[in-house]
Design goal:
The protein has 602 residues and is α/β, with parallel strands linked by helices. The chain has 3 domains: 3-42 and 51-249, Glutamine Phosphoribosylpyrophosphate, subunit 1, domain 1 (4-Layer Sandwich); 258-445, 3-Layer(aba) Sandwich (Rossmann fold), CATH 3.40.50; 446-590, Rossmann fold (3-Layer(aba) Sandwich), CATH 3.40.50. The chain is built from 17 helices and 25 strands. The chain is globular, with a radius of gyration of 26 Å. The chain binds fructose -6-phosphate. Fructose -6-phosphate is lined by residues 305-308, 352-354, 357, 360, 404-405, 483, 487, 598-599.
Length: 602
């Protein structure tokens, strides 16, 4: 969702550095953007007061994408911050975009999250004479800080205001006369980057890679005072000083640029064989440790949202097939109804790319309160979920920049293959299955096969609907495949358990309706084929994704058998189909409308 980037140092092109930082955060999804910088007008006066009064904050903010916009019309400055906004309170307008200023124009703020008690705070501030320009909750925060700054130090004013605001928020505040940022977080992510004579703040560590690899992830209720000279961290509740925990980011910078690929999504699809090979050789022992925890549990819930939720469904089938273990997959936003059944022996396995998905974090919080053991499979180092879990595995897919999840989905699945085999006491076999998977994925990504999928997308691009069917683990594949098509190509896709066809779904089939049938070499093959036949008998166009061709298929996409892990190449087929459909239909697959990469609101 919203992105934050701040620079303070000795370079005079801070607005430009900030705009470049915001471009790194575009993938999070946004509808407007803005930058603020301090302009220092030279004065010959010896009087300190008149000198400082020459500092003003210049703001540039606009709705829409950054595109080729530049900030060369902004003043030279060595301190600036910027924001990409995904509207929550107040429509998508230039005025509602961040940064927001206080009445004096001396204090600027950028903000991620929602100030839940903003209405009440706004009423009080109006009574005190504050003038509001926007409809946002954020503007309330900057006026509250202005109010407190009349009587106390700027950083103390930010601290006091923060403690009065309810909700999960991250703020960076800038005062025209103080060469520093005051940043504070509760819930929404914020990371400090340490440079040489310069320092940074961002909502996402990957945006810092062009500048530094030394970072401190702010914890909830931590406040940072960031200037070019250094970074001071405090407990925002009691003011105690805290030593930063510097972490080194070991991602390569090439992970955050498109390189030879036209879109991040395609690049991330092609990164999958390498990532899967790494997981195969590096991750068995972590899976075995997690299996030990799960074996002691009275029950295990797998909790996640969207694509990660479908990974959870696939994992529950895998654990059942491979280890005869029952794990219960639950959509995180519906987890409240399972909370009464949790005990201190229950394990919650949370799956997430970002580690910041509000519904998933909320489910974890509820489970924690019941004393359950929180485990996590998460891709973002330093994320809230990563830090909160008692036991965690880092997916290791590297930064995912396209809004829709690809490599993090298959990366999680690969770990869950290892976990399922570890639960069965067959860790080595799990590695062998993954080796086969890597070969299957490499074969799928050869030009011959990708061209086939492109030709299919060209043929289907004008269709309004597409259906996906599967049984067993391929039911999860069908759900994920339909979501991928919907979210980036805007074609209506629906995934079904093939057995459900005759209970109503089949009414949707007419002549030429495309239907993808996932038919791996498993116990579901014959029943699923019967479903495909029922659709074909009603005029449907059958796209078979399978290890062998069949007369029922109107179009065949070969996928080599990799046992339970065939779900991985099957999902990659749907990633490619969705990608090519988006391109053929004229959409940007990296930035689908209305969607955000990390969903940090409920
Ligand atoms: C779909 C997609 C979303 C995410 C979901 C959970 O392509 O990306 O459905 O899977 O929002 O996000 P994370 O995994 O970050 O918790």
């Amino acid at each position: 969702m919203c992105g934050i980037f701040g620079y303070v140092g000795t370079k005079k092109n801070a607005p430009k550095i900030v705009l470049a930082g915001l471009k790194q955060l575009e993938y999070r999804g946004y509808d407007s953007w803005g930058v603020a910088a301090v302009e220092t007008l030279k004065s010959n006066s010896k009087d300190q007061k008149s000198k400082t009064s020459k500092n003003t904050i210049v703001v540039k903010k606009k709705i829409g994408k950054i595109g080729s916009a530049d900030v060369s019309d902004m003043p030279e400055s060595d301190i600036a911050f910027g924001h990409t906004r995904w509207a929550t309170h107040g429509g998508v307008t230039d005025v509602n975009a961040h940064p927001h200023l206080d009445c004096s124009g001396k204090i600027a703020i950028i903000h991620n999250g929602i100030v839940e008690n903003y209405e009440e705070l706004r009423k009080n501030l109006l009574k005190k004479g504050h003038k509001f320009l926007s409809e946002t909750d954020t503007e309330v925060a900057v006026h509250l800080i202005e109010e407190y700054a009349k009587h106390t130090l700027f950083s103390k004013a930010v601290q006091k205001a923060f403690n009065e605001m309810e909700g999960l928020n991250a703020f960076i505040v800038l005062h025209a006369d103080e060469h520093k940022f005051v940043a504070v977080r509760n819930g929404s992510p914020l990371v400090v980057g340490f440079g040489d004579g310069e320092n940074f703040l961002a909502s996402d560590a990957s945006a810092l890679l062009p500048h530094t690899r030394q970072v401190h992830f702010l914890e909830d209720d931590q406040m940072a005072i960031v200037s070019e000279k250094g970074v001071l961290i405090f407990n925002a509740k009691n003011g105690d000083h805290i030593n930063p925990i510097k972490q080194h980011l070991d991602w390569s910078e090439s992970a955050v640029v498109k390189g030879k690929f036209p879109y991040f999504m395609l690049k991330e699809i092609y990164e999958q064989p390498g990532m899967l090979a790494d997981i195969t050789v590096e991750s068995r022992s972590a899976a075995e440790k997690l299996a030990e925890t799960i074996k002691k549990a009275d029950k295990t819930y797998i909790v996640a949202c969207g694509s990660a939720g479908y990974v959870g469904i696939a994992a529950s089938y895998m654990m059942s097939i491979v280890a005869k273990y029952q794990a219960i997959p639950v959509v995180a936003s519906e987890f409240a109804y399972h909370v009464p059944f949790l005990t201190s022996k229950s394990v919650v396995l949370a799956l997430s790319q970002s580690g910041e998905t509000m519904d998933t974090l909320d489910a974890v919080k509820k489970a924690r309160k019941k004393g359950a053991i929180i485990t996590a499979l998460v891709n973002s180092l330093g994320s809230t979920l990563y830090r909160e879990a008692h036991q965690k595995i880092l997916v290791g897919a590297g930064p995912e920049k396209a809004v829709c999840s690809t490599k993090a989905v298959t990366g999680k699945l690969a770990h869950l293959v290892l976990l399922s085999y570890a639960l069965a006491g067959k860790g080595r076999e799990g590695e062998e299955v993954l080796k086969k998977t890597v070969r299957a994925v490499k074969l799928l990504l050869t030009p011959k096969n990708t061209k086939r999928i492109l030709s299919l997308a060209k043929m289907l691009s004008k269709k309004e609907h597409i259906y996906m069917i599967g049984r067993g683990i391929s039911y999860a594949t069908a759900l994920e495949a339909a979501l991928k098509v919907k979210e980036i190509s805007y074609m209506h896709g629906e995934g079904f358990a093939a057995g459900e066809l005759k209970h109503g779904v089949i009414a949707l089939i007419e002549k030429g309706t495309p239907c993808v049938a996932f038919l791996p070499n498993d116990e579901t093959y014959n029943d699923n084929l019967a479903g495909a036949m029922e659709i074909k008998a009603r005029g449907g166009y059958i796209i078979g994704v399978s290890h062998k061709p069949n007369d029922v298929f109107d179009f065949y996409i070969p996928v080599s058998d990799a046992g339970v892990a065939t779900v991985i190449p099957n999902i990659i087929v749907s990633q490619l189909l969705a990608y090519y459909l988006a391109i053929e239909r004229g959409y940007d697959p990296d930035m689908p409308r209305n969607l955000a990469k990390s969903v940090t609101v409920k």
